[in-house]
Every structure is written in C-alpha cells, then in structure tokens.
Amino acid sequence: MARALIIGGSLGGLFAGLLLRQAGWDVTVFERSSGDLASRGVGIGTHVELFAVMRRLGIAVDQSIGVPTGARICLGRDGAVIARLPFEKILTSWALFYRALRRHLPDACYRAGMQLEDVAQDAGAVSAIFAGGTRVEGDLLVGADGLHSSVRARVFPANPAPRYAGYVAWRGAIEEATVPPAGRELRESYTFFLPPREMVLSYWQPGADDDARPGRRRLNWIWYHPVHARELAALCTDAAGRHHAAGIPPPLIRPDVIAAFRAEARALLPPQYVAVTEATPAPFFQPIFDLESTCLAAGRVALTGDAAFVARPHVGAGVSKAALNAAWLTDALAAAPGNIDAALSAYERQARAFGTALVARARYLGAYLEDPPRAGLAPDPIPVMQAIGAPLREIPELAGTF
Ligand SMILES: Cc1cc2nc3c(=O)[nH]c(=O)nc-3n(C[C@H](O)[C@H](O)[C@H](O)COP(=O)(O)OP(=O)(O)OC[C@H]3O[C@@H](n4cnc5c(N)ncnc54)[C@H](O)[C@@H]3O)c2cc1C
C-alpha cells in the first residue's frame, strides 16, 4: 500500500489524511503541537463546497453542524440598525470541525508532538525528518503545515513569503450566558459595524461541547483594524521583550496592548460591541497576510491549505480551500495511478488557479482596511454585507477555477 506522510494535523491535514485514507493510502498525520488543538476556539463561516467534502467522508451534516443565520444587519455608532439584508449562512466553530474530522481518523494514524525539520527525496521515496532526528519514509508528502509552512520553506524556497496586509484581526468569543444585556441586541443576526477604514463583525457559533442550541452558543466577534507594519513589531513583542514574528501567542500579548485595545473599543464602537468586548476576558489579535505560492508540487511533495495560499479572511473560505485542495489532490492521484508526477501536476494546476483567484478576491475586499488604504470594495454597508463570505459560486474572480 502506498504511504502518505501528512505534515500538519489541523483541518487541512485532517482533510488530506482522511480523503487519502478513504482512497486506499496508508496515511500518517504528523502534528508538531502535543496540546489539544480543539482548544483553538474561534468561529468560522462555511460554504456548501466544504459540507460536500464532509459528506464525502461520511460525516453527518445536520443542524448540529453550526448556527444558521438568515439576516445581516449593520449598526451605526449609536447602536441603531442602519441597514439590513437577508443572508443565509451557517456559522460554526473551528473546534467542532476539528473534532468531527479527528474522530474519523484512527489514533494510530495521528502522531502529535512531531515537528518537521527537513524533507529529503529522490526518484523512489520521500523522507520527513523530525526534531530529535526521527526519519519517516513515504511515497508522498503533503505539506499542510499552515501559513509559516516548514515544508514550503524546505522544498519550495523560491516561493514568495507571506506579505503583511497592513491590518490585524482582534478577536474573541464569549458564552451566550455571559453576553451582557447591551450585547444581547446582537441577537440572531450576523452583525456589522463599519466606521471609516475599519470592519467589525459578529455572529453566533456553537459553544462548549459543540452545542449549537440557543442558550448554549458563543458570540464570536472580529475587529479588522489597520496597524502600520512598523507598529506591528511592537504589538507582537511580549513582556519579556521577545518578538514573535510569526504571530504572538494570545497568552503573551502584553497587558498594555490589551488596555490600549479596550480604550480604542470604548472610543470607537457602538454600545453593543463595547459591552461584548469588555465582557471578553482575553481578546487576542492575528496579523492578516496574503500568501501566493507560485509552485505547489515538486517530486513527491505537494502543498495544501494555508501552506500553499492564504487569502484574507473576508471570503471566509480558508477551511473550504483546505478541504477542496485535499479533494483535488486525492482525485488527481486516483486519476493517474502510479504516476505521482502527472497527478501532482494536475493538482497544482487546479489548486493554483483557485488559490490565486481567491487571494485576489480577498485583497479586493480588504483593500480599504490597508494602511494606507487602496481602492477596492466600497466600504458602505450594503456592498460589504453582500460581499463578505458570499457563496463561492457567486464570486466573479473564482469563475471557472473549480
Ligand atoms: C481572523 C481570521 C478569520 C478567519 N475566518 C475564517 C472563516 O470564517 N472561514 C474559513 O473557512 N476560514 C477562516 N479563516 C482561515 C482559516 O482559519 C485557515 O485558512 C485554516 O485554518 C487553514 O487550515 P490549515 O490546516 O491549512 O492550516 P493551519 O490551521 O494553520 O494548520 C497548520 C498545522 O500545521 C502544524 N505545523 C506547523 N508547522 C509544523 C511542522 N514544522 N511540523 C508539524 N506540524 C506543523 C500547526 O501546528 C498546525 O496545526 C480565518 C482566519 C483568520 C486569521
């Protein structure tokens, strides 16, 4: 049986591992973290294409998969509703998807605490070399190791590096029971607040134990906020003076940075969002990047998910992209049995066309948030509410790419 080594045990790695296993590959997923990944408690928007891959894996997609919303509203600075739009969407959580996928992969196929350090390959095999010196050989290696991919750095050194977009996403989620009375007005809708050069949004996601029922949910909020590149280094420096170039882990964000965030929230946001951000014990931020790989396949190695392309989150399709990449890779390998070169070339063509178009779309949606802003989507309530997380089939840039 042909052996696939998957580097990265997050959603992209799990999709690749499960689909290849279903297609008859002997699969091992290697994840550098030894902690519980399901504690990454953020909300995610979904697309029908993502659910199609879940169904292909035999994972039930029913009402427990997330929280449906039928409307979007936009608030003014005083908290009044200034625009409303019908919009069907299912919002869910990263943790729910992680658990649903992880349950389907036998423990013997998932090795935590394995940090890839190097990759070696020749015509007959590919080897993954891990910290501590462990070496594992296979027929195929999939780099599903995210934005700062070691596989990309080792095997594709000529690929462009991630490019900081000029803004960060401040984020948090609170249990429904702890949402203060002012915040309860955010209710069932997917809510926006769009002051000049900023974007704030919130939606309900499943809560603890993946419970999506009213009363048990979490309110997830995101605030896209311009931060000039020269200020980002200071934000990403911890109290011990250590700079975290790849993004600062949330517990290390300095108290003065969080205090400044809270002061800005009080000065700028409507009462609903002031209440909700105040009730969030540990808000954190993630710098936003663009990444466009020019090369996704070399010999027996392929890149998928965020290791290959990172589109700003406004399309809400990072997880869908990781799932589609895994499906296209599996299908290309099945269509060219015994011919990895042909299979990976076919995969690369499809994934590159889609990824390039997705990054372009997301840059257009986020152009007005950059510092300095660029021309792109008009930052008015109706165009923004129509465009953010729109169905993939309705996005002109993606036409013909999937
Ligand atoms: C603010 C924000 C909002 C978002 N909203 C949405 C949304 O609504 N919908 C959506 O679909 N997407 C959204 N995304 C994007 C989405 O989270 C990512 O696209 C998706 O998680 C990428 O999955 P991945 O498996 O490719 O990479 P990752 O989730 O980054 O996983 C990479 C894994 O590889 C591991 N790893 C890294 N290096 C090594 C190594 N050397 N050896 C072994 N393992 C390694 C890491 O520990 C990690 O577990 C959002 C992103 C942000 C920043």
Tell me about this structure.
With 402 residues, this protein is α/β, with parallel strands linked by helices. The chain has ten helices and 18 strands. The strands form three sheets. A nine-stranded mixed sheet has the order 3-5-4-12-13-14-11-15-18. Bound molecules: flavin-adenine dinucleotide. Residues 7-13, 30-33, 37, 44-45, 114-116, 144-147, 150, 169, 171, 222, 286, 305-306, 313, 316-320, 322 line the site of flavin-adenine dinucleotide.
Short description:
This protein has about 400 residues and is of the alpha/beta class.
Chain-wise SSE layout:
Blueprint: E1 3-7, H1 11-22, E2 26-31, E3 43-45, H2 48-56, E4 67-75, E5 81-93, H3 94-103, E6 110-112, E7 116-121, E8 126-130, E9 135-138, E10 140-143, H4 150-155, E11 163-175, E12 190-193, E13 199-205, E14 218-226, H5 229-235, H6 255-268, H7 271-278, E15 284-292, E16 297-298, E17 301-303, E18 309-310, H8 318-335, H9 340-366, H10 381-387
Parallel strand pairs: 1-2, 1-10, 2-6, 4-12, 10-17
Antiparallel strand pairs: 3-5, 4-5, 7-8, 8-9, 11-14, 11-15, 12-13, 13-14, 15-18, 16-17
The site of flavin-adenine dinucleotide has 35 residues, from helix 1, strand 2, strand 3, strand 11 and helix 8.
